Amino acid sequence: MATTGVTFESISPADFFYRNRSIAGFDNNMRALYTAVRELVENSLDACEDGGFLPTIDVKLSEVSSNWYKLRVKDNGIGVPRDHILPAFGQILYGSKYEHKQARGRFGLGGKMAFLFGQITTSEPLHVITAPVDEDHIFEVLLRQDIEENKPELVKWERRKNRDKKHGCTLEFTLEGNWRSAKRFIIDYIEQTALITPYAHLKFTEPDGTIHDFKRSVKKLPPPPTPVNPHPKGMDIEQLSRLIEDTKTRDMVTFLRTHFHRVGPKTAKAFLKTINMPFSQDPRALKPNDLVKIARGLEVFNKWLPPDARVLSPLGIKLLELGIRSTLNPEFVHVTQRPPNSYGGHPFIVECGLAYGGGVPMKESIIIYRFANRIPLIFDEYKDVSAKIVRAIPWSRYRIRPGMPIAAFVAVVSTKIPFKTAGKEFIADLTELEYDIRMGLMECARNLKGHLRQKEKVQREQVRASVYEKYLPIIARDISALAGRRKIPDTKALAQSALTIKLDEDVEAEEPTPVEEGILTTTPPEIDDTDESVEEE
Amino acid sequence: MATTGVTFESISPADFFYRNRSIAGFDNNMRALYTAVRELVENSLDACEDGGFLPTIDVKLSEVSSNWYKLRVKDNGIGVPRDHILPAFGQILYGSKYEHKQARGRFGLGGKMAFLFGQITTSEPLHVITAPVDEDHIFEVLLRQDIEENKPELVKWERRKNRDKKHGCTLEFTLEGNWRSAKRFIIDYIEQTALITPYAHLKFTEPDGTIHDFKRSVKKLPPPPTPVNPHPKGMDIEQLSRLIEDTKTRDMVTFLRTHFHRVGPKTAKAFLKTINMPFSQDPRALKPNDLVKIARGLEVFNKWLPPDARVLSPLGIKLLELGIRSTLNPEFVHVTQRPPNSYGGHPFIVECGLAYGGGVPMKESIIIYRFANRIPLIFDEYKDVSAKIVRAIPWSRYRIRPGMPIAAFVAVVSTKIPFKTAGKEFIADLTELEYDIRMGLMECARNLKGHLRQKEKVQREQVRASVYEKYLPIIARDISALAGRRKIPDTKALAQSALTIKLDEDVEAEEPTPVEEGILTTTPPEIDDTDESVEEE
Lengths: 537, 537
Description:
The structure is a homodimer.
Chain A: E1 8-10, H1 13-19, H2 29-51, E2 56-65, E3 68-75, H3 85-90, E4 94-96, H4 109-122, E5 126-131, E6 137-146, E7 151-161, E8 168-176, H5 179-196, E9 201-205, E10 211-214, H6 237-246, H7 252-259, H8 265-274, H9 288-300, H10 317-328, E11 332-337, E12 341-343, E13 346-356, E14 367-372, E15 375-377, H11 385-392, E16 406-414, H12 431-483, H13 492-499
Parallel strand pairs in A: 2-9, 14-16
Antiparallel strand pairs in A: 2-3, 3-8, 5-6, 5-8, 6-7, 9-10, 11-13, 12-13, 13-16, 14-15
Helix pairs in contact in A: 2-4, 2-5, 5-10, 7-8, 11-12, 12-13
């Protein structure tokens, strides 16, 4: 029996992702349209925040012909430097340098997959207009991707003087899509993105011209996340050998201090002792066996300092509350930020919120809004760690019953979000995360309980008041008649005095909640926050 | 505000998958161990079937030190040709040429990811011994992957004469793993692979030396799947332009006939008329606009012949039944093969089975075994289309109640399995698939109902018989006494005659089921199937 027909080939990464596009969320026309909008909005937000600009992002979807849509996304970000325009849009696995920090995306595969999907369904080129910050020109470029070679194919290149010192990027391309099915998800996505980035002005225009305009409700960016060295826990041999290849240090103590997160000379020495390695060992002279010894040792050593959460940039409870109020206009909101925590070398911070009444829709169960590094998660809710915790909390203990208009908010930031899939749609249920989400939501629930109790009291008082108001005059009249008096006494003051009975305090709510409803309207005024720290508690 | 810190870089595909290894199922030590076994077993099965050899695959996992395991997989496949050994094992996105046919994997990413995972966790090289069929030497190679450059790094290369004309491949490497957590999944995987490839001899040795040995129960391979041209439905512009670039045809009618599945001159001409394109149009002279016109037309045209399922290689009901019997040794089995069907240009065939009693474990609900192109699917069952259908079937109508020992089998083969994730763990719920799975399982259920009814009858008869046997002698004795007779008549023949009452036929089971229990024992004899067609119905 002969081996026939088995031949070998090498394919480009672009070709691989073209053949396996479902990996990046381009399974079908519905999902592709949603993913394209999402990836471009996220790239735009990053481009604005990288430059420290308050994001202004304009997304417009228009119908070209049946099932063909033109997507245009315009931002005021830092733009793309001249020399990077072609590969940045036309070469898969080319992008802004990977750093160890809180970030929306990881390697910018999504945007290019969106253009690729447009190209293979409509053959139209991508239209880029970019004004890179710090450059003198605006570039207008038409390009395609050569998928087999994984390189950009230039169609048109023009440049003009950037007289007004603009900066930003406008991308426009055509793709096949199913707007009818994708509509709900895209609008949810835009709305929730507005909620979690209240410092951004987001505008979305539907194919029929309907405009969703989310103005910014605060004029200050949260502090940017800081890139950090990797934490010694969770480091593999490949990472280690790359560090050794590049290091300028000449002894192991300095090596560990220089390239690892929160390792000082004392910790470095204590660690080296556990693996019997001299402090003066030159990292460049390490043998493969030494690398294995170090990697295993790093994992086992139990005196590393936990990762420092100051490198993260959570939204902050002020901004989270503002976002919730301006999106849902609820009767009551409580938000909280948990203390920093970590898992396997990665710091994380959980922020939670509960909103009740007002514009919160009445549903069978609690509505959950999930965010990871300021990305709203729309699909696969029931598989997410937050949904698991929401299901497990004994809500009735907090006077919360099915059918009440309640929304829960869970926002996680981390240098590495433990997504369970490449599609970044839901978060794995790690014990550490579960704990913080539970504690956060339960704190919110206690405060909501206080509010609900107070509300019930007020309602009971109102019932009492109406009883007094109804019967006191009748009693007064009849008693007057019995007493043979003509003049009926005025019962109003009496009825009033019965109402001043003080509401007793809510013993269970640790911090009696200042009920703030009515302070902000649906579109709250822009707050010029001059306070240094936007995210203080 | 200046743009600081945003620099760009290009990374190799190996580096991309190293950084995003969860895409390929290497999320953690548990999953990595499972995925490594699975990918290597599947590659071995392919290597055997490609050469037409009955697979003999020996998988051995041994503990090297705490959390370090050595995985060795040995097969009798076609081996890897000399010139391809290095890239085939050390270069991501290099593999056997992609063809349009029923296949286990798509591009052989999995195996290389397994070696990569081993390398970054243990730094050990991969050990390859391969005897390529049709070559004179056996090659023994040690190699690593240069992840940043995506190229193999040779450590050792030896060759020796292949005196015995052996063929096959042995791979051995060390990786970090969590055997305790992965054990259940790995053993399930091996057991179910044995079930769906009853023509393979699979042996798995656990780290503690426990051996799972699944001998082959049939000595004939199913016919190999045939590579086909792509179906006109579902073709995108990229695919179309690649065909045009390579074609030797010089007119559109010949072009369509030559490169598309089931397109003859009549269909080709009918199609070209709908898009107003001359039959004589030279494909090499097509403009980008023409490509768009053709691609959209291909999608809309409704007279294409459905894809031909003869290119598929389903297991066949004989082999499926054999697999079920030898694995579970049930009291009753019914299997069925649905007629060929298709979705979006891809043919598929569904095979179903129901097993009852015997070795089938008693569970709360029906146990589901799922297979896609002869791969067992182990994770994410509740999201799979088969689980959805099993939940929806009104089982009580078939006398099937919760708590009965019942297992359902659903095997799908297709030129493209609609997996919902890159991890190939569950199948999307397409309407066409749902229909065939429902019809298949319901046919099995009707037959099982017949069996259950017959079984109940037999049980009722046995109860009756025991009543006769118990009371007839007493009655006979007492009556004899009353009649003053000494000799008590023999009641045995009478009791016997009461039992010969015929069981009435099961009116609902279309084909009265030949109940075959007991024909095969736990380890069935090897069948030397000389019949040409193993999979006839």
